[in-house]
Automatic annotation (TrEMBL):
It comes from the Bacteria. It comes from Vibrio vulnificus. InterPro entries: T4BSS_IcmL/DotI. It holds the Pfam family T4BSS_DotI_IcmL. This is Uncharacterized protein.
Length: 201
């Protein structure tokens, strides 16, 4: 009887020792893994944005202007010309190439203007190339647009269609564009077109 009790005690003791040994082995393995990881870890290089002149880049708060009025005028003119530089083969995909310069709502308006209605049908029918000719007159106002700094630009322009028969004018428009600040780490210009209206004149 006493023999069986001592045998049971020995078995319990052996089981405890085995459990402790297993836990120690796991702890040792985890420690070795952590040590190997720590020894081989390389800190990723920090990317510090700089201007072309080499000065550190600092983001301008979104409620403040980051450009002179003349820079905004030029940016709007360039963006409008690029926006209406398309042809019958690429017109459906063309708006998506401008997603970094337009808000989703403004881009949807542009896509609808280009790809729906009479303009789309005419460009298709005549296998044409479209170009925007802007007038010299360009007015710009600035101020707060909600929480963002923004500008409203107004100009006039004519959409021209180049085709086999030569060149023809589609229509003249008053173009009203609202430009607002965006995060410069997402959009390098720090601005985009948040709304656009094309009014036939």
């Amino acid at each position: 009887m006493s023999k069986s009790i001592s045998t049971r005690k020995e078995k319990k003791s052996t089981s405890k020792e085995l459990a402790i040994l297993a836990m120690n082995t796991l702890t040792l393995a985890a420690s070795v893994s952590c040590l190997v990881f720590a020894m081989n870890y390389r800190v990723p290089p920090e990317i510090i944005p700089v201007h072309e002149g080499g000065k550190y880049f600092e983001k301008t708060p979104l409620h403040l202007s980051n450009k002179e009025d003349k820079e905004v005028k030029q940016w709007v003119a360039d963006t409008l010309i690029e926006s209406f530089d398309f042809h019958y083969r690429n017109k459906e995909k063309h708006p998506s190439t401008l997603s970094n310069k337009y808000s989703p709502e403004a881009l949807a308006y542009l896509d609808n203007f280009i790809n729906d209605g009479l303009l789309s049908a005419r460009v298709e029918r005549e296998s044409g190339i479209v170009e925007l000719a802007l007038s010299d007159g360009f007015t710009i106002d600035k101020g707060q647009v909600g929480d963002l700094f923004g500008w409203q630009a107004k100009t006039k322009g004519a959409l021209m269609l180049y085709h086999k028969g030569g060149r023809s004018r589609i229509a003249r428009y008053e173009i009203i564009v609202t430009v607002t600040r965006t995060d410069e780490s997402v959009n390098v210009d720090g601005i985009n077109i948040s709304s656009i209206q094309m009014r036939k004149i």
